[in-house]
Amino acid sequence: MASPGACEDPQSHYCSPLVSRYASKEMGFNFSQRKKVGTWRRLWLYLAQAEKSLGLPITDEQIKEMEANLDNIDFKIAAEEEKKLRHDVTAHLHTFARCCPKAAAIIHLGATSCYVGDNTDLIVLRDGLNLLLPKLARVIGRLADFAVAHADLPTLGFTHYQPAQLTTVGKRCCLWIQDLCMDLRNLERARDDLRFRGVKGSTGTQASFLQLFEGDHRKVEELDRLVTAKAGFKQSYTVTGQTYSRKVDLEVLSILASLGASVHKICTDIRLLANLKEIEEPFEKDQVSSSAMPSKRKPMRSERCCSLARHLMTLVLDPLQTAAVQWLERTLDDSANRRVCLAEAFLTADIILSTLQNISEGLIVYPKVIDRRIRQELPFMATEKIIMAMVKAGGDRQHCHEKIRVLAQQAAAVVKQEGGENDLIARIRADPYFSPIHPHLDGLLDPSSFTGRAPQQVAKFLKEEVRPALIPYRSKMGGKTELTL
Fold it and tell me: Which of 13, 217, 289, 290 is catalytic?
């Protein structure tokens, strides 16, 4: 059996681009057939070890035989078995038994296929979250450094994509970071909330294990606890059907979809700013943006993130519907769907985080372009400050307001109808009425005086909220991400 997305001949068969083109080797392996079947065999070993320790007639020799063959997996034989049996777990059970003839009689003792299937899925979900978390932390860390570097750089703010009050480049970046910090907390919570299915039997009642231990409830509970601990979980779900609740999948993929929304918003902002030529993502020396337009510098990485983030956001519909239609103790119409959506969600989240890290490590800012755009809009934004200064100099507020209104309309006509520069300040300088404040106009038009507490907010936010959130990932914050494509 090939791993998801892998092909013997990738040029002649469809291969998922999530694996062949984008995602990391680590995440690709996490959802591979080898990781899955290897985990099944370890779960069979944990079960046998725990059953032996609680008094069932299992020998040391049988345990050692299983231990020696955990990774001795003949996928060709397993595929032949599955073709006959139409049951993947049973096929691999038979394949494992061939490797372990002495242990064959006690492998999978008392268990149902969901013992290995569902417990493995929970291990893979946990391991996948542990792969994503440091990646997300690195993105936050890189953006935090960017926010610090540009905390004081004034830039035109936009509401409704129309010019609004000034902010700073660093403060805008903090809006991105805030969303990602929410995602970091949600991913941590999802990982920490995950439990093990444990050993529960075919409908979750543990009847088969109660029979094995001759009605000893204490031993059945201890078996569940022992196997749960061996698998690296602190707790198992107290009640299950044949499967763990599919709402668990829904909760995890909802958080990944939310991460997708965050990344889509950030990369859309970068694409908009790239159009304004204020900020650009990294652009390599030999990179080609267009086969027809050599001068073009398209935000390819940000576009990729948006494209994949949309896919990630839609995947939450699969577990949402699956959780809704699980009849009674379980149906099998979840299986094929989950093979696709769980892997794709993690693989997609993996690549958008790697790509966003690459973007955040090389963001380019063009202060002169930013300043030019500020100068085009600032005269209109400064009118209230000019009115207040005139009032302090003894002018009449209403009369001053009317004078500026007329001049502003004239300047706007030059900009909109003639395509000229905003000359409002030149008009104010030329009008004797405003002579009392002429010496102060440059100070009134200082862009930094229009950014409010943006620089202070950046410093406080990063110190009190962002840096503490990154402490658990300090040892994994190094290194740069290079994209292969």
Answer: 290
Residues in the chain: 485
372 occurs within a structural domain: no
Please tell me whether residues 169 and 254 are part of one structural domain. yes
Residue 160 appears among annotated catalytic residues: yes
Q: Which two tokens stand for residue 72?
A: 């001795």
125: closest CA among 74, 194, 41?
A: 194
Q: Domain check: are 100 and 134 in the same one?
A: no
Residues 193, 339 share a domain:
yes
Q: Which of 394, 391, 431, 395 is nearest to 411 (CA)?
A: 431
- 405 HSE (CA, 13 A, CB side): 6
Q: Are 445 and 378 in contact (CB under 8 A)?
A: yes
Q: How many domains does the chain have?
A: 3
In a domain? residue 450: no
Range of the domain at 55: 1-7+32-109
Dist. CA 236–CA 198, nearest whole Å = 6
3-state secondary structure of 54: coil
Strands (E) in 135-242, as ranges, are 154-159, 162-168
What pLDDT, on the 0 to 100 scale, is given for residue 471? 97
- The answer to whether residues 342 and 469 belong to one domain is yes
Looking at the domain assignment, is residue 484 inside a domain?
no
The answer to whether residues 98 and 163 belong to one domain is: no
Active site residue 53: no
User: DSSP letters along 89-155, please?
Assistant: HHHHHHHHHHH-TTTTTTTTTT--HHHHHHHHHHHHHHHHHHHHHHHHHHHHHHHHHHHHHTTT-EE
For the ranges 73-87, 144-158, 428-442, the maximum mean pLDDT occurs at: 144-158
Distance separating alpha carbons of residues 313 and 260, to the nearest angstrom: 6
Q: Which residues contact 110 (CB under 8 A, 6 or more apart)?
A: 47, 51, 199, 201, 208, 209, 211, 212
Residue 426's domain is classified under what CATH number? 1.10.40
Q: Quick count: other Cβ atoms within 10 Å of Cβ 39?
A: 19
* Same-domain check for residues 198 and 347: yes
pLDDT tens, 81-121? 999 998 999 999 999 999 999 999 999 999 999 999 999 99
- Single-letter amino acid, residue 119: N
Do 336 and 403 sit in the same domain of this protein?
Answer: no
pLDDT tens, residue by residue, 150-166: 999 999 999 999 988 99
CATH of the domain at 303: 1.20.200.10
